[in-house]
Amino acid sequence: MSAPTAARELRSVLRRTGARTPAAAAAVLEGLRRVVPADCAAISRWDPAGRRHVTLAASYPAATTAFLDARMHADPLFGVVRAGRVPVRVRDLAPARRRGEIFESVIGPLGFRDGLTQCLFAADGRYVGMLNASTLDPGHPDDDVVALLDLLADDLGAALDPVPPPVRGGAPGEGGVDGMLVSPGGAVTPLSAAARPGLVADGSPLRTRIAAVLAGRPAPPGTLHVLRDGGVLAVRLSGGPGGVVVLHEDVAAPFGLTPRELQVLDALSRGRTNPEIARDLAVGVRTVATHVEHVLAKTGCPNRVAAARLATRLGLLAR
């Protein structure tokens, strides 16, 4: 198979499966072997919360992979490559630039004669990760390989982007995923055009969860369901003390519950009585009783305790 044909097939794989998981990245790396002749290669995504790379698939030794993840981004030479936004081979560098930890920890000790690094970017310009390939042959990769990788750059970047491109105008649950990064100081950086910073504003139910992650507690597993502006958002948190990535997308209300019924279900999970719920929602006690009946009927829960457990499993935040 020729390299251009392999590149076309790889583009199809990237658009169909992405490279956000180790399994998907391994498949992409296998496809890249037919485009980029290399003795070792790696695909790494950038973790904006941890401020480090996370290698998803690699054929380098473990010590090299650890360097790629934890220290390569701090090497001044990497900053030059990232700023250029094109694949850079070792032999493209002026001799005076061939120094630093990249050469001292990887290229020199492993005997590589050439290779390249390609920094990858999302459509909106965010840095999302990198491709590294190293060879023992000083003649590879050649100019044709560099050109093919340059053509694949947009697809590689989109495949690594933790925020898949949103597709607007569909039914609930088909609107796409958006996201933002919350820093330890509370600053919110959108990671996509339709990110909703108000979702993590002071006073929002998510803010407490984010503060806990920033304080060092594990991020909540699975998906949270947040009632917002009459709709429901599926929210996932990841990160740690260095920052929290918040991904969200519009979804259908679980079990077909109305916004008011979701509020009642959330209140049940907090052990609120009907009179307390009535005061919180400024409605009558009999109205609350009716809502509770509807919640139990729609969810199939036999009683309030079971409904409360369901709300916890859903990660429901409706206040």
TrEMBL record:
Domain of life of the source: Bacteria
Keyword terms: DNA-binding, Transcription, Transcription regulation
Keyword Cell division part of the UniProt annotation: no
Pfam families: GerE
Sequence ranges assigned to domain HTH luxR-type in this UniProt record: 250-315
Protein name from the UniProt record: Response regulator transcription factor
Organism: Pseudonocardia oceani
Upper taxonomic lineage: Bacteria, Bacillati, Actinomycetota, Actinomycetes, Pseudonocardiales
